[in-house]
Automatic annotation (TrEMBL):
GO terms for biological process: L-tryptophan biosynthetic process. It catalyses: 1-(2-carboxyphenylamino)-1-deoxy-D-ribulose 5-phosphate + H(+) = (1S,2R)-1-C-(indol-3-yl)glycerol 3-phosphate + CO2 + H2O. One of its GO terms (molecular function) is phosphoribosylanthranilate isomerase activity. Transmembrane segments: none annotated. The gene is trpC. This is Indole-3-glycerol phosphate synthase. It comes from the Archaea. HAMAP family: IGPS_A. Keywords: Amino-acid biosynthesis, Aromatic amino acid biosynthesis, Decarboxylase, Lyase, Tryptophan biosynthesis. InterPro entries: Aldolase_TIM, Indglycph_syn_Halo_TrpC, Indole-3-glycerol_P_synth, Indole-3-glycerol_P_synth_dom, Indole-3-GlycerolPSynthase_CS, RibuloseP-bd_barrel.
Amino acid sequence: MNSDEALAPAVESILEAAAERPGGDEPIDVAARSLRDAIERAESDGRVPVIAEIKPTSPTADGTREADPVELAEAMVDGGAAALSVLTEPTHFDGSPEALRRVREAVEVPVLRKDFLCREAQLDVVEADLALLIARFVDDLEGLVAAARERGFQPLVEVHDAAELEAALGAGAELIGVNNRDLGRLEVDLATFESVAPRAPEDVTLIAESGVSTPADVRRMRAAGADALLIGSAIMDHGTCGEVDVAANVQELTGAETERAGETTNDGENA
């Protein structure tokens, strides 16, 4: 781990479990679907590029969604998701590599493996189009980025501050996620993305992660430079009784900019 700052107990527990999880027996070979192409397709269709996350639960969520991950994935894509993220962490998020495998077989959009990977062999558990690497939790970030690319993964490097952004860029990251959640206090502040994003080169694809719940949040992150948004709880709607219309939740968020454009058009005489 690359930071001396204290972590929330829940995060410490996640990392302890991650350190004990085994990797695969041999390197895998992935024919990845391009996230950048998926982002371009969404934008050309007038949709905000959203990476919709299948997250049964989390330490910060109320309740658990027990719906079939394939059904959720198909509904998210129907709602306009440009890509998907699937939790494979089993202990704290109820995720699994098998869920990711099934989802990727069922959809044609890129699928991100969301987990807490700390060593190279853990890349070899399941095929995905992208692999999340959290800068704060990786000792040899450059080596793990290279190892992911050798297998065909597109590495998505997650950062939270300017120092981690510099580390990600130094490791050769081209896809960077800025996590608005402080892993020390588990508090979310959308201003985190707004402070980090201007420091990134223009040729880097930036993804805003955590805390995006409403169309207004989507517009705020897009205005700050987000090429795409990774959204989980607002789509999964943890803790809600009864059925949740996942497709409608995605559609509302992917149409956020169109909604604002419609408002502008309707009120154009007063603008």
